[in-house]
Specification:
Blueprint lengths: L16 H4 L5 H8 L5 E5 L5 H14 L8 E5 L2 H13 L6 E4 H16 L6 E2 L4 H10 L6 H16 L7 H8 L7 H18 L1 E2 L1 H14 L1 H10 L2 E4 L7 H11 L5 E5 L14 H4 L1 H4 L4 E5 L1 E2 L4 H12 L4 H4 L5 E2 L8 E5 L2 H17 L7 E5 L5 H10 L4 E3 L9 H16 L12 H9 L14 H22 L5 H14 L8 E5 L8 E6 L15 H15 L2 E10 L74 H6 L11 H18 L9 H10 L4 H5 L5 H16 L12
Pfam family, one: UvrD_C
EC number: 5.6.2.4
Keywords: ATP-binding, DNA damage, DNA repair, DNA-binding, Helicase, Hydrolase, Isomerase, Nucleotide-binding
Length: about 725
C-alpha cells in the first residue's frame, strides 16, 4: 500500500517548466524556485512537502537549471523513494536518482569496491539476527528471543552512531540508553559479531554506509568521481538522519552547498535507531546563508484534527518542541475527534470494528481506514474483531505488493496475453482494456465478488482486485492504452515499489504509519503504560512518545477516533487511565498535577509573561484556556487562522489600516535583517489581529494568538511602539 492521495492516478505531464509550478501555494513555490545554495524546508505534517521538493527538482530539470543525472534525492524508505520517482516521472523529470541512503551507498560500493579494495563486494546479509545469535553462542551468552532482538538493536544503534565495541558502554551511558543486558556483556557480543562477519566474509546493512564513508574518506580520487556525478542533493525526512548518514552526506557534498533538506523536528520518532533532529535544527548554524521556508498550510486534515495535533505539541518540552510548527488547516470543518473509553481491550476492538463498519456503510472505502497501535503485539485482537465483522484488512509491513506470489503470477499472465493475445480465445469477446485484464486474471482466481471471510484466499483476491482497479484507472486516463501499455506501467511501478491500493482496512503500528494517510484513523490502546510505553522513562523518551502520538493524529484526513480500555481483559481490574497526552485536550479532562496542559477545547497553550515553575528558571507556566470565541459574534472558533484573528473571517473588521501598513513595513525590514521570510516574524493574520486590537502594554500583546513569549521578548517593544504611533528605525529593532 502506498500513501493515499486524492489526486488523479495518471495526471497529465506538465507541458513546460512554468506549468510545473501551477497549483503550488506561495511557500511551496518558494521551495520549488529556490534552486541555488543551501535550502532548509521546515514542513509540518500534511503540508505537501513531497509535492514541494519533487516540483522543485522537476522545475529545475525542465528549466534546464539542473541536469537530471546530477541530482541525487535521498530518503529513508524504499516506499518513499519509489513514490518520489513516480512523481518525478509524472512531472516529466526523467533520469533523476531517488534512492534511500543505503541504496545509493550500496550502488556506489558495488561500483568502486573492485577499484578501492579489490575483488567482489562481500555478500550483504539482509537479516543480522541469526549472526547475532551465533555470536552470542560463541560468547556463551544466553539470550531469549526478545533479548536477541534488543541486542541486535543495540548493535545497529552503535554502528549508525559510529561507536566501536570498546566504546559501547560509555556511549550508551552518555546517551541514557536502557540497555537490555549489562553494557560490558553487550560490548563483548558486539565485538564477537564483528569478528564473525569478517570470518564469513559478509557485511550487514549498516556496513554499507560505514564502508562507503571509509572509501570516500580514504580515496580522494573516488570521492571526486562521485562529486563530479552528483552536483545537487535533496534529503527528505532530514529529522531522521543519523550521525553516520550525515557524515556520508557531507562526503558526497564536499565543499559545495547545493543542498536542500526537508524535515519536521516534531516528527522525530526514530531516535532509538540513532536518528536525531539536531542536524535539521542546526542547519542554519552550519549554513548561515541558507534559505529557510516553513510549510504550515495543512491540506490533509480538517481543522478539528489539526487543533488536536497543535494541542499535543503545545504541551511538549525540549528542543524539538521549541521549534514546533503550528499547522493551519486548509480544509472545511467536519466532525470532532471521537474519544471513547472501554471496559476492556476486546470491547475496544469490537467497538472499533462497529464504527469501521458504520463508516464503510456511509461510503468510506476500507482502504481509506486505518487502525494504528503502539506495538505490533496489539494487532491480533483487531485482526480477530475485523474478521468476525466480515471486514477485510491488511497488515502494514507485510510482504511487498509486487513480491506477492499471486501478483508475480498475474504479471506473467498479463505479459503473455499482451504478447500473444491475438491467438488467445480467452480474449476473443473482449475489446476494452479493463475487460481484457479481468478475463486474464479470472484464470488466476479473480472473481466479480470477493470470497467470504478472511485469510490467504481473501488476501489473494484482494491483490488481484487491486490490479483490476488499476487497469480501470489506467484506461480512463489513457483511452487508447493497450494491454502492452499496462504491462509496461506495471513494470515501472514494480521498479519504483509504487503499489496500487489494496481494498482492506490497514492495521499498522504508529511507527509503520509514518508517511501515510487515510480518511479515517482509529488510534487505539491509548492508555498509560502503552502510550507512553512503560519503558519510556526519561523526559526525552516520553517526549518521543508524544511525537509518536502526534504522527498518528496527523495521519487522519477527516475522521479520527481515539480510544483506550480501563482493563486488559473482561472482568479485570479497571486500573488503567487514558494517556496523559490527552489531558486538557479531550472533553471532560483536565491537566494532571505538574503537567503542562494545553487546556480547553482548542488545545493550544500560551505563555503567561515570564512566570516560572519549580522545574527551573526558564520553565514557563502553562494555563488552561477557555474555547476561543469570536469577539464580534461570539461563535466558537475552530479554524487556526480565525483563532489568530480572534474573530470569524466573515465578521466585520475594525482594523486600523494605517497601523497595519506600518507593521508590514517594519516586518519586512526585520525579516531582511534576520534573513528569513516575513511570516517567520509574524503572519499576516497576527498583524491584522494586532492592528485590530491596538495593544497598549505587553499583557495585551501577549494575549494575541501568534505572539507568544519568544516573539514578545524579541519584537514586543517595537510592536508596542508602532501601535503607540512612535517611529521605529530599521537599525534599532530588537535593541
Amino acid at each position: 500500500m502506498t500513501a493515499a492521495t486524492h489526486s488523479t492516478l495518471f495526471p497529465r505531464v506538465p507541458d513546460s517548466a512554468d506549468a510545473v509550478l501551477d497549483g503550488l501555494d506561495p511557500e511551496q513555490r518558494e521551495v520549488a524556485t529556490a534552486l541555488h545554495g543551501p535550502v532548509c524546508v521546515l514542513a509540518g505534517a500534511g503540508t505537501g512537502k513531497t509535492r514541494a521538493i519533487t516540483h522543485r527538482i522537476a522545475y529545475g530539470v525542465r528549466a534546464g537549471i539542473l541536469q537530471p543525472a546530477s541530482v541525487l534525492a535521498v530518503t529513508f524508505t524504499n516506499r518513499a523513494a519509489g513514490e518520489m520517482r513516480g512523481r518525478l516521472r509524472q512531472l516529466g523529470a526523467h533520469g533523476v536518482q531517488a534512492r534511500t541512503f543505503h541504496s545509493a551507498a550500496l550502488r556506489q560500493l558495488q561500483y568502486f569496491w573492485p577499484k578501492a579494495v579489490g575483488g567482489p563486494l562481500p555478500r550483504l546479509v539482509e537479516r543480522k539476527i541469526q549472526l547475532v545469535a551465533d555470536a552470542a553462542a560463541a560468547c556463551r551468552i544466553r539470550l531469549d528471543r526478545n533479548e536477541l532482538r534488543d541486542a541486535t538493536g543495540e548493535i545497529e544503534w552503535s554502528k549508525v552512531t559510529q561507536t566501536v565495541p570498546a566504546d559501547y558502554a560509555a556511549a550508551a551511558a552518555k546517551a541514557g540508553r536502557e540497555t537490555p543486558r549489562d553494557p560490558a556483556e553487550l560490548a563483548q557480543l558486539y565485538a564477537a559479531y564483528e569478528d564473525l562477519k569478517r570470518d564469513r566474509s559478509v557485511i550487514d546493512f549498516e556496513d554499507v554506509l560505514l564502508l562507503a564513508v571509509g572509501i570516500l574518506q580514504d580515496r580522494h580520487d573516488i570521492a571526486e568521481q562521485v562529486r563530479s556525478q552528483y552536483q545537487h542533493f535533496v534529503v527528505d525526512e532530514y529529522q531522521d538522519v543519523s550521525p553516520l548518514q550525515q557524515r556520508l552526506l557531507e562526503l558526497w557534498l564536499g565543499e559545495r552547498d547545493s543542498l536542500c533538506v526537508v524535515g519536521d523536528a516534531s516528527q522525530t520518532i526514530y531516535s532509538f535507531t540513532g536518528a536525531t533532529p539536531d542536524h535539521l535544527l542546526d542547519f542554519r548554524t552550519r549554513h548561515p546563508g541558507a534559505t529557510v521556508v516553513k510549510l504550515v498550510r495543512d491540506y490533509r486534515s480538517t481543522p478539528q484534527v489539526v487543533r488536536l495535533a497543535n494541542g499535543l505539541l503545545a504541551q511538549a518540552h525540549g528542543r524539538a518542541a521549541d521549534h514546533r510548527l503550528e499547522l493551519v488547516s486548509q480544509r472545511e470543518p467536519l466532525a470532532e475527534p471521537v474519544y471513547t473509553e472501554y471496559t476492556d481491550e476486546p470491547a475496544e476492538a469490537e467497538g472499533a470494528a462497529r464504527r469501521i463498519r458504520a463508516l464503510m456503510t456511509d461510503g468510506v472505502p476500507a482502504s481509506e481506514i486505518a487502525v494504528l497501535f503502539r506495538t505490533n503485539s496489539q494487532s491480533e485482537i483487531y485482526e480477530q474483531a475485523l474478521a468476525d465483522a466480515g471486514i477485510p484488512y491488511q497488515l502494514r509491513g507485510a510482504e511487498r505488493f509486487f513480491e506477492r506470489t499471486e501478483v508475480r503470477e498475474a504479471g506473467a499472465a498479463l505479459r503473455g496475453a499482451a504478447r500473444f493475445g491475438g491467438n488467445d480465445a480467452l480474449l476473443d469477446d473482449v475489446v476494452d482494456l479493463p475487460s481484457q485484464v479481468r478475463a486474464v486474471l479470472s484464470t488466476k482466481g479473480w472473481t466479480t465478488e470477493p470470497p467470504a471471510g478472511s485469510g490467504a484466499v481473501r488476501d489473494r483476491w484482494e491483490s488481484l482486485a487491486a490490479l483490476v482497479r488499476l487497469a480501470e484507472d489506467f484506461a480512463r486516463a489513457n483511452a487508447s492504452a493497450t494491454l502492452a501499455d499496462l504491462v509496461a506501467e506495471l513494470d515501472e511501478r514494480a521498479a519504483a515499489q509504487h503499489a496500487p491500493t489494496v481494498e482492506g482496512v490497514t492495521l499498522a503500528s504508529l511507527h509503520a504509519a509514518k508517511g501515510l494517510e487515510w480518511d479515517a484513523v482509529f488510534l487505539v490502546g491509548l492508555a498509560e503504560g502503552m502510550m507512553p510505553i512503560t519503558y519510556a522513562k526519561t523526559d526525552e523518551q516520553v517526549e518521543e512518545e508524544r511525537r509518536l502520538l502526534y504522527v498518528g493524529v496527523t495521519r487522519a484526513r477527516a475522521h479520527l477516533s481515539l480510544s483506550w480500555a480501563v482493563s486488559r481483559s473482561p472482568g479485570g481490574r479497571p486500573n488503567r487511565r487514558a494517556t496523559r497526552f490527552l489531558d486538557g485536550l479531550r472533553p471532560g479532562s483536565g491537566a494532571t498535577a505538574g503537567a503542562r496542559a494545553a487546556g480547553g477545547t482548542g488545545g493550544i497553550e500560551r505563555g503567561t509573561g515570564g512566570a516560572t515553575e519549580p522545574g527551573g528558571p526558564t520553565a514557563r507556566r502553562r494555563t488552561n484556556r477557555t474555547p476561543a470565541r469570536c469577539r464580534v459574534c461570539g461563535r466558537t472558533l475552530t479554524d487556526a487562522g480565525e483563532m489568530k484573528l480572534m474573530r470569524c473571517e466573515d465578521c466585520p473588521s475594525d482594523m486600523d489600516e494605517g497601523l497595519y501598513e506600518r507593521l508590514c513595513e517594519w516586518r519586512a525590514g526585520r525579516a531582511r535583517r534576520i534573513g528569513q521570510p516575513a511570516f517567520c516574524v509574524f503572519t499576516d493574520k497576527t498583524l491584522i489581529a494586532i492592528a485590530e486590537s491596538v495593544p497598549e502594554e505587553e499583557g495585551e500583546l501577549a494575549r494575541i494568538p501568534g505572539v507568544g513569549q519568544r516573539k514578545l521578548r524579541t519584537y514586543g517593544a517595537d510592536v508596542l511602539a508602532i501601535c503607540a504611533g512612535q517611529e521605529v528605525l530599521d537599525g534599532d529593532e530588537g535593541k
